[in-house]
Amino acid sequence: MTADPEDLAAFLDREDRGDTYFSVYENEQLVGYFCFQFQGEDELEMSLGMRPDLTGVGKGSSFLHGGLDFVRDKYHPKKIILTVATFNQRAIKVYQKAGFIIVNTYSQQTNGGIYQ
């Protein structure tokens, strides 16, 4: 996030981010975060991020399922959407294993570059 000062400032500002971000801790150590935002009445977009040293070691599935359980209990959405960069194949594999399917791809300008 440091490559995009505006995104970083919004992420760090409690008023800007509102009550859409949730931190995940294990043994008093930050593991990652989830962000939940409704897109209409019944459709919820979920974003997430894990601490980089915890990725690629088999923890992604349990992290994702914990977030899914939380969002279903708290918000009861009919549909959950994930957005992920196409280069993040590890994350895509975890999401597909959890039942998510690729519906669309698009380019987005963020963090100083354009990503698909």
Tally of helical runs: 4
Q: Describe the main β-sheet briefly.
A: 4 strands, mixed
Spatial arrangement of strands, main beta sheet: 1-2-3-4
The secondary structure category is alpha+beta
Care to count the β-strands? 6
Tell me roughly what share of residues is in helical segments.
25-40%
Distance between the termini: 17 Å
Topology order in helix (H) and strand (E) letters = HHEEEHEHEE
Task: Please state roughly what percent of the residues sit in beta strands, choosing from under 5%, 5-15%, 15-25%, 25-35%, 35-45% or over 45%.
Answer: 25-35%
Rg, Å, rounded? 14 Å
Broad shape: globular
Low-confidence sequence ranges: none
Average of per-residue pLDDT values: 85
Task: Report on the architecture of this protein.
- The chain has 116 residues and is α+β, with helices and mostly antiparallel strands.
- The chain is 32% helix and 29% strand.
- The chain contains 4 helices and 6 strands; from the N terminus they run ααβββαβαββ.
- The longest helix is centred in the middle third of the chain and has 16 residues.
- The relative contact order is 0.15.
